[in-house]
Specification:
217 residues; TIM Barrel; eight-stranded parallel β-barrel
Length: 217
């Protein structure tokens, strides 16, 4: 099995240079999904950036996912949105107690992608599937400086979830060329990478290192 690459933006970008870097990475054909995750940007600035990045993704057959902002993602016709448990909490939607189908509640188009962070919780992931998620993410699996990790799941959670669900699993947190094979061998469908790519002197080389069929170790 070879996991697909789910590339996430750094927390801050300079749009002109970033567009060039992203275009070069997407030209490789190795990135299946790109998520724009910019937390401290005003709405209009975020919208402008997101529209420009979405165009690049569409030109290179890469799915474009916006972090958090469901309204903007729907209004702009993006491929999907990724939300965390805190986002659901703010909408008064606790997956552990609600019986609301999220897709119906948000009036999502049939092919709209809804990703949900489940951290280290198998029960949250199963709830997310039951209530309309398109994929779930677990992590941080390894130490990371990209963001403060809420949880550190065991690798076995991927296999445990796969035994009970057919939803794709995105693994995140400190993934690099030294540890990614653990996630691949446990059944992760996607490897979500941030700093390993963007802070590398040669991002394309780093990307290629994650796309080599791994030897089970």
């Amino acid at each position: 099995m070879v996991s697909k690459i789910y590339l996430i933006s750094p927390p801050k970008i300079e749009i002109v240079s970033f567009k060039k870097e992203l275009t070069n990475l997407l030209k490789t054909g190795l990135v299946r999904v790109f998520q724009l995750r910019l937390k401290d940007y005003h709405f209009l600035e975020l919208k402008k950036i997101a529209l420009e990045i979405n165009t690049i993704c569409q030109e290179h057959n890469c799915l474009f996912i916006l972090n958090d902002n469901l309204q903007l993602a729907l209004e702009s016709g993006f491929d999907g949105v990724h939300i965390g448990q805190q986002d659901l909490f703010e909408l008064d939607l606790n997956l552990a107690t609600t019986k609301i189908n999220l897709r119906k509640f948000f009036k999502l188009p049939k092919d709209f992608i809804l990703g949900v962070s489940c951290y280290d919780s198998l029960s949250l992931a199963l709830d997310a599937e039951r209530f309309g998620a398109s994929y779930v993410s677990f992590g941080a699996f390894f130490p990371t400086q990209t963001k403060r990790a809420i949880a550190f799941p065991k690798l076995s959670i991927i296999k445990e979830f796969n035994l009970q669900s057919s939803l794709p699993v995105v693994a995140i947190g400190g993934i690099n060329n030294d540890n990614y094979h653990h996630l691949v061998n446990n059944g992760a469908d996607f490897l979500a990478v941030v700093s390993y790519i963007w802070q590398n002197q040669n991002p394309i080389c780093a990307l290629n290192n994650l796309c080599i069929n791994p030897i089970i170790k």
